Structure to design on (922 residues):
């Protein structure tokens, strides 16, 4: 039966989209037509056809577009390391090259930083470090410039690995002499960190030169405490101790304080400090600080008042400090009063412009007053250009105070970076060169594919009869994939962790159902897990409601009863114009189909059974579940005339 | 009978449908994603898609029934025909299963119909198609009261399955310009349906820039029962495109590697306009 003339034509015409977007037609070029209209002889009413070339999407672009359109998400088959290499020139100093790399390699996290300079001292590895961390096994290896609580900035090699219970983290290290240092000793150390509960950390390190460190950190809700004692034999002999603590009180009020004391040899440096912070409003807080610091020949005690204000994109900070300095030299002693004020204001105008103004004044009792004013401006001139300027205010002509930075991202992932001003510690530079200079560096960035590491989860999706189910969406945590024509699936390079394996209800074939039971999996990088998933095939019950007009005990064309209501469990349906009905997408199970005799039209009445039992298996649909109705016959009540 | 009662059948992506409803003060309005379902597949492949329909929040709960049927279009593009799945040689209706087939949509909640296309194992490479139709049906549990005319909604979308290598090829076979409309006839020389759109340009004699450009609404040209189809567009008003002799150029995009072009000289007659009214 065909029909015509309904409004669905509009829908289908507009719904079909070819391989190009509709807007493509608006960009059709006409210049490539074989002849322009002006060249045509007049009176030419024959149809001339031609073709016009158009840009063709490359196969790679098609592949990427298909990939982007895919709803499936798989673990990355490769890790990536981003490497940036810079080659630079420093005016009056040296050439230098800088290599920065970071990313994943075979499941580990790798960081590399090196700076190599060439100058009067020849090639110098000014700084360099490699760090490798395995997030699964939690081991860490570091080579090059490493920081040690015992020795500070050091150069060496260190390896640490947590114990099985993860409550301790032993580390072994070898510290070598730094370049240019008079101390040439190599030191071996053992460090151990012990977690006691979740609040206490005990940390100790002992070295082959008899240096040692004890450190303790306690965190308990509102209270933090850290203390250490260190005894160093090399590179310099030193002993010191420190305690610091902080407590958070009511409504954000906090008290912090600490003390430090250099013991034994040295200048006897020491300091003590206590501060109280009052958050007066959401935008403004006030801090009071009292500090005492000193050494063998000097000491000072000062009080400071600090306030900070945050109002939208405007941030302001003001510090007022007043104190007395005691000087004790061999032939003289004295006290100097010093007063300092410092103000910093910064304004962030969107993501493109940031302006910061710093003002500082220091006044000594003896008369000298020092002022310092500086303005820093950062601007993103375009999506690829960044400019930063630092200069004195209001007089910007002081060239010694000028610093500038400009970075331009270039095509092919190059970037050009220019600096002017007093350079930070780029390399060891003699004092006479410590002046404003120009530095130019060209950077190039690469993303390098590296091997990935991870477990594998694979299996098949089967129905209750053991038949493979193709096209079923399988979900493993955040990852999804679709089964192949054999019902198989495989997730590779799955990062270690706990996952739920199940099916994606929205990506199941329409003729199967899943009970929603997920499988809990714990994967390690070497795991190879096989897991099959099961679904139930859905089937249908087909039948008719008909009136056997010719009495042949079967349905014939034209005998269907439309509008009859049938029930199956909580489902309900109505027969079509030909009397047919379908209960679709049913689990394999016994069912009972019932004809709602009370809702038959007034022309028909139920005949015989109004309920049929159906055993639906996973082998296919059940047909012929038919109900027969009979026409209602109205009796004629006869009357005899004349009686 | 139900088909005769079907009045409103179409809506675009995010277009609400508001058919009149004799039984209520307001018509049924809903949102449905009507982008046709396009699948590139190989024999034996199983592909799942979804159709979503969401009743507007102020609507009553409504029962819908989904089915898959064959569909084709008249050569002039003005009429559509529907038939039981499998009527056409290139029908994919019998490959499609739906779940649910019949369900009640709650106001404001999406009704999601899962569509699974299972491509048979032995099927020649070609483009196959059918239509998914979702009809509003009467609630069987509702009491029938009185006698009246009931208007029900229906919505259809195309399912196009390209199996194996499908060649997209088409050519323009005719270009006719009438008083108020233009028709471009196209023949599908490939082995799968093509969606075609484009434009008409009217050049005055001696001019290299068009005096008027008319966008041709998108149309689908099938491979069965006819390989010919038409794109029809109304002409701009006579004030913009007066009567006269023109070179008419058609530029069509059928999704292939190149565009199709055709041109011819025509003597354009325009309807008489009196006080802005076309007579």
């Amino acid at each position: 039966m065909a029909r015509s003339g309904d409004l669905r034509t509009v829908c289908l015409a507009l719904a079909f989209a070819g391989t190009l977007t509709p807007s493509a037609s608006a960009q059709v070029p006409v210049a490539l037509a074989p002849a322009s209209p002006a060249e045509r002889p007049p009176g030419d009413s024959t149809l001339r056809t031609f073709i016009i070339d158009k840009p063709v999407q490359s196969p790679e672009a098609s592949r990427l577009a298909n990939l982007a359109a895919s709803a499936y998400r798989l673990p990355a088959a490769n890790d990536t390391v981003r490497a940036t290499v810079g080659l630079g020139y420093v005016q009056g100093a040296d050439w230098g090259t800088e290599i920065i790399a970071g990313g994943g390699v075979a499941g580990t996290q790798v960081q590399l930083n090196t700076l190599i300079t060439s100058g009067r001292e020849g090639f110098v590895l000014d700084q360099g470090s490699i760090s490798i961390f395995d997030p699964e096994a939690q081991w860490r290896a570091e080579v090059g410039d490493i920081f040690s609580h015992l020795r500070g900035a050091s150069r060496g090699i260190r390896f640490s690995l947590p114990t099985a219970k993860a409550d301790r983290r032993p580390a072994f290290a070898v510290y070598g002499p730094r370049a240019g240092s008079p101390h040439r000793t190599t030191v071996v150390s053992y460090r151990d960190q012990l977690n006691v509960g979740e609040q206490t950390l005990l940390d100790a390190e002992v070295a082959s030169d008899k240096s040692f460190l004890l450190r303790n950190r306690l965190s308990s809700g509102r209270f933090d405490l850290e203390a250490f004692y260190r005894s160093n034999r090399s590179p310099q002999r030193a002993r010191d101790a420190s305690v610091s603590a902080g407590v958070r009180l009511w409504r954000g009020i906090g008290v912090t304080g600490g003390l430090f004391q250099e013991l034994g040899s040295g200048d006897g440096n020491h300091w003590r400090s206590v501060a109280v912070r009052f958050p007066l409003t959401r935008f403004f807080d006030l801090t009071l600080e009292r500090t005492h610091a000193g050494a063998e020949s000097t000491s000072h005690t000062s009080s400071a008042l600090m306030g900070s204000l945050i109002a939208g994109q405007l941030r302001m900070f003001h510090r007022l400090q007043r104190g007395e300095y005691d000087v004790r030299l061999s032939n003289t002693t004295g006290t100097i009063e010093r007063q300092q004020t410092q103000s910093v204001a910064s304004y962030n105008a969107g993501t493109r412009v940031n302006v910061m103004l710093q003002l500082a004044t220091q006044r000594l009792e003896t008369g000298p007053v020092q002022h310092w004013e500086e303005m820093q401006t950062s601007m993103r001139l375009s999506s690829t250009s960044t400019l930063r300027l630092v200069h004195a205010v209001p007089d910007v002509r002081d060239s010694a105070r000028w610093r500038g930075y400009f970075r331009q991202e270039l095509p092919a992932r190059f970037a050009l970076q220019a600096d002017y001003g007093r350079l930070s510690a780029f390399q060891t530079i003699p004092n006479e060169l410590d002046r404003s200079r120009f530095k130019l560096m060209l950077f190039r960035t690469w993303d390098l594919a590296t091997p990935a590491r991870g477990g594998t989860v694979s299996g098949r999706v089967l129905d209750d009869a053991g038949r493979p189910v193709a096209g079923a969406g399988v979900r493993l945590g955040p990852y999804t994939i679709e089964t192949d024509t054999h019902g198989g699936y495989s997730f590779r390079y799955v990062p270690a962790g706990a996952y739920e394996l199940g099916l994606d209800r929205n990506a199941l074939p329409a003729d199967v159902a899943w009970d929603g039971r997920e499988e809990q999996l714990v994967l390690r990088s070497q795991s190879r897990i096989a897991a099959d998933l099961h679904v139930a095939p859905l089937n249908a019950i087909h039948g008719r409601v008909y009136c056997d007009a010719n009495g042949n005990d079967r349905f014939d064309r034209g005998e269907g009863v439309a509008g009859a209501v049938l029930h199956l469990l909580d489902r309900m349906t109505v027969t079509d114009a030909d009397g047919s009905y379908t209960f679709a997408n049913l689990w394999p199970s016994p069912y009972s189909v019932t004809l709602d005799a009370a809702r038959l039209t007034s022309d028909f009445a139920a005949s015989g059974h109004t309920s049929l039992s159906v055993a639906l298996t996973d082998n296919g649909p059940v047909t012929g579940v038919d109900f027969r109705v009979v026409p209602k016959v109205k009796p004629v009540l006869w009357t005899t005339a004349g009686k | 009978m139900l088909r005769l009662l079907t009045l409103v059948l179409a809506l675009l992506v995010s277009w609400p449908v508001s058919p009149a409803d004799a039984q209520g003060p307001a018509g049924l309005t809903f949102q449905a994603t009507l982008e046709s379902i396009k699948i590139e597949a190989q024999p034996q492949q199983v592909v799942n898609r979804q159709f979503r329909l969401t009743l507007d929040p102020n609507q009553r709960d409504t029962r819908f029934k989904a089915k898959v049927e064959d569909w084709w279009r008249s050569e002039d593009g003005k009429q559509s025909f529907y038939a039981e799945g499998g009527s056409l040689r290139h029908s994919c209706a019998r490959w499609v299963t739906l779940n649910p087939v019949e369900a009640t949509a709650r106001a404001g909640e999406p009704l999601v119909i899962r569509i699974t296309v299972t491509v048979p194992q032995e099927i020649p490479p070609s483009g196959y198609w059918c239509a998914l139709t979702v009809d509003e049906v009467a609630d069987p549990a509702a009491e029938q009261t009185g006698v009246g005319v009931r208007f029900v909604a229906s919505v259809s979308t195309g399912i196009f399955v390209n199996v194996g290598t499908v060649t997209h090829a088409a050519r323009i076979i005719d270009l006719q310009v009438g008083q108020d409309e233009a028709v471009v006839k196209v023949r599908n020389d490939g082995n799968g349906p093509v969606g075609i759109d484009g434009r008409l340009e009217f050049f005055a004699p001696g001019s290299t820039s068009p005096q008027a450009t008319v966008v041709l609404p998108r149309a689908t040209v099938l491979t069965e029962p006819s390989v010919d189809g038409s794109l029809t567009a109304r002409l701009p008003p006579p004030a913009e495109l007066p009567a006269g002799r023109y070179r008419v150029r058609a530029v069509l995009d059928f999704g292939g590697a190149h565009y199709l072009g055709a041109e011819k000289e025509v003597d354009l007659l325009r309807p008489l306009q009196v006080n802005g009214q076309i007579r």
